Structure prediction request, 310 residues.
Amino acid sequence: MLSLTFLGTSAARPTVERNVSGLALVREGETLLFECGEGTQRQMMRYGVGFALSEIFFTHFHADHFLGVIGLLRTLGLQGREEPIKLYGPKGAKKLLESAIKLGVERVPFGVEIREVRPGDEIRNEEGVGRSSYGISVFATEHGGGSVGYALIEKQRLGRFDPAKAQALGVPEGPLWGKLQRGETVGLPDGRTVGPEGIVGEPRPGRKVIITGDTRPCASVVDAATGADLLVHEATFGEEEKERAKETGHATAREAAQVALAAHAKRLVLSHVSARYSISADELVQEARTVFPQTAVAKDGMTVEVPYAE
Prediction:
């Protein structure tokens, strides 16, 4: 299972309908949090996202994207958490987040590791090696201050195993089937050897999810999102405020759709919408769909499943 739950979809400030930025990605029981705007911990409780997370990723450090980490860490401490947590963000993360951790009376009773990341980095696990079945890559965005986005990319899966063909070749069901699917050649009791050719199909692609944070449309995002199963791109404004989007380092819904189209992404979800679209963002969806039909706009509490392509 791979799903994303939108905890906050408003730009700059919360509204009655939308909280500021927060996104929970759940993959095979593991929860990753991207952004942690003010009130994120309450949104997590409201929408059933558990607190058993070990990593939080920040795209940049405007207040609407990180202020919630102060309260979240305090709550985790009050709940008796002992496991360490890792916080990732672009240049300046150490100084800013260390200050945030020290705010308040209570001491955080668990370890907090802060890592600064740069475009091109692959975020590794605590042993310093690659994650076993997926990676998280960092790419550049255009929002000032060294802002970044994150790409979750799964490794290739094993090819599809055909039991009927294995049986026809006399391979007994059991451990030998598993070896064949892993690409190994096996020996049979009658002395023959059988390889995976013709029994196991070609390796199948994993899934790819792109989270841009705040950004202008740019080549680095298109490159990162190439072939993505899901692109989560900001759409703060409609096309009528295109000049304002340029001035503030944001994107319009149409511009986000153009990025998705250029990247040959499969689906686009718009988020970080201006307060003027808080009640209804239909205008943004319609604008984007004229360019990229497979577009939706996120609402707080919305969960999007990302299935395998095959």
User: Anything to note?
Assistant: The mean pLDDT is 94. DSSP finds ten helices and 16 strands in the chain. The two ends are 14 Å apart (CA to CA).
